[in-house]
Design brief:
heterodimer, A: mainly alpha, MetI-like fold, 9 helices, B: alpha/beta, Rossmann fold, 2 domains, 6-stranded mixed sheet, 4-stranded antiparallel sheet, 12 strands, globular, binds adenosine-5'-triphosphate, binds magnesium ion, transport (chain A), transmembrane (chain A), Ectoine/hydroxyectoine ABC transporter permease subunit EhuD (chain A)
């Protein structure tokens, strides 16, 4: 028996492909939630109302200091005991999104706080509405500089998707493992999964860099 | 119509235990050009920031154009102004900052049309035409498409002036608008302010360290000291024959520094 058998590679390919689609979908959907919800968290956090902003800070801290896996178990296994039944896919993507939203919100916060205070003063002096000031003046300056760190969380979330296997979602790594178990041979499938993760991460980081460059150029920032 | 354009009535401002302005009373007439001078920390900037509603006041009332800015009438009693009331009244006021505070991601033209379109509701075309006119007036007709980073300090400050004027304020506030500029760029900004004073019906309130300009340009100069107006009067009197010792000391110190 050779160490590396190409027959297994070809055999595992369609199987892993199915898993790769699930992994990529989960990453994109989950990260879309994280981006939007993270921004909402960050904006609520900026509220003038100390109580609202304080509660938001606590929620973010709570999410960040408990394990992702526990949060997924909580929603998927504990929920039904209280009559809250959420399908695995929805629960998995939702929790991934919320978990990473907490991290993204801290990125947004850093970006927002880095915008020069004089920009807010100019908005007031020009009588812009709060909504307009956020949307047209503050966020376009706050977000481009934090794209690289948001991108890190994008890749981080991608690498966390195998956790979905815990609630019976057949993502790429789980499929590789199953393939190995069925054939009493793991090396090809697991190696291939590893290579695919690496490939996706590299592609993703190139895309993030391109978005970052484009945004900075679009908004004439340094 | 004899209301002053701006009235500070017993206005007090403090940060914690530090009283920055103590029962300030100051009236500024329509079209009047008033300069504020005084040592660092005497509360000059604070006066402008309160009027621009960038700072809340602790006591007293500020009036603009005959109506209260910091307060509003509710069933016959004066209550603290709501955000809505503030927005309406501060529309009469424009401000130019020491550090320009231009929007760096917008061109000179975009800087000047953002608020007219989104706040005043002008059409884009109208706003652009007006902004172009104002940029021409400040001598930057050829820089409309430039971003702040592509301009000199003097040019940025002139864009900032055009941007404030685009909102058609009745009162313009200038806070040391030439202090962040290289000396050779000060003149071009002061010229624009001069021209504004001559050609527009504007009440102007400026904090400045340019004594020469204050003397030539203002109708009245207020010397602030320790959160109070220590002395005020026409520039000739205040600069040449001040009554107050502190004024005299301040002026000689400033003259020595050049
Ligand atoms: N946000 C703040 N918190 C606490 N103290 C403040 C704040 N802003 C201003 N002060 C204090 O208020 C006083 C008046 O400040 P202000 O900026 O009005 O002075 P100024 O006359 O404009 O001085 P300068 O010539 O240095 O600009 C100073 O003692 C300053 O330290
Ligand atoms: Mg000042």
């Amino acid at each position: 028996m050779s160490i590396w058998d190409w027959d297994y590679v070809w055999e595992a390919m369609p199987y892993l492909y199915q898993g790769a689609i699930v992994t990529v979908q989960a990453t994109f959907l989950g990260f879309a939630i994280a981006l939007v919800l993270g921004l909402v968290f960050a904006l609520v956090r900026q509220s003038q109302n100390r109580i609202i902003s304080g509660v938001m800070a606590e929620i973010v801290e709570f999410i960040r200091s408990t394990p992702l896996l526990l949060q997924i178990f909580f929603v998927y296994f504990v929920g039904p005991q209280f009559g809250i039944v959420i399908p695995a896919w929805t629960a998995g993507i939702g929790v991934l999104g919320i978990h990473y939203a907490a991290y993204c919100s801290e990125c947004y916060r850093a970006g927002i706080e880095n915008v020069d205070g004089g920009q807010w003063e100019a908005c007031t002096a020009l009588n812009l509405s709060m909504a307009r000031a956020w949307r047209v003046i503050i966020l376009p300056q706050a977000i481009p500089p934090i794209v690289p760190s948001l991108g890190n969380y994008f890749i981080g979330m991608f690498k966390d998707t195998p956790i979905l296997a815990a609630i019976a979602i057949l993502e790429m790594l789980q499929r590789a493992k199953n393939f190995g178990a069925e054939n009493y041979r793991y090396i090809e499938a697991i190696t291939m999964a590893g290579a695919l993760y690496l490939l996706f991460s590299l592609v993703a980081s190139v895309i993030v860099q391109m978005i970052s460059l484009w945004l900075n150029r679009r908004y004439h920032l340094q | 119509m004899s209301d002053p354009m701006v009235r500070f009535e017993n206005v007090t401002k403090s940060y914690g235990a530090l009283t920055v302005l103590d029962q300030l009373n100051l009236d500024i007439e329509r079209n009047e050009k008033v300069s504020i001078i005084g040592p660092s920390g005497s509360g000059k900037t604070t006066v402008l920031r309160m009027l621009m509603t960038l700072e809340r006041i602790n006591d007293g009332v500020i009036w603009v154009d005959g109506e209260p800015l910091t307060h509003m009438d509710r069933n016959g009693t004066m209550v603290k102004a709501s955000e809505r009331h503030l927005r309406r009244v501060r529309g009469k006021i424009g401000m130019v900052f020491q550090h320009f505070n231009l929007f760096p991601h917008m061109t000179a033209l975009q800087n000047c049309i953002e608020a007219p379109v989104s706040v005043l509701g002008l059409s884009r075309a109208e706003a652009e035409a007006r902004a172009a006119e104002l940029l021409d007036m400040v001598g930057l007709g050829d820089k409309k498409g430039h971003f702040p980073i592509q301009m000199s300090g003097g040019q940025k400050q002139r864009v900032a002036i055009a941007r404030a004027l685009a909102m058609r304020p009745k009162v313009m506030l200038f806070d040391e608008v030439t202090s962040a500029l290289d000396p050779e760029l000060v003149g071009e900004v002061l010229n624009v302010i001069r021209q504004l004073g001559a050609e527009h019906d504007l009440t102007m309130l400026m904090v400045t360290h340019q004594m020469g300009f204050a003397k030539e340009f203002s109708d009245r100069v207020c010397f602030f000291y320790g959160g109070k107006i220590a002395e005020q009067g026409p520039p000739d009197k205040l600069f040449n024959d001040p009554d107050n010792d502190r004024t005299r000391q301040f002026l000689s110190a400033v003259l020595e520094a050049g």
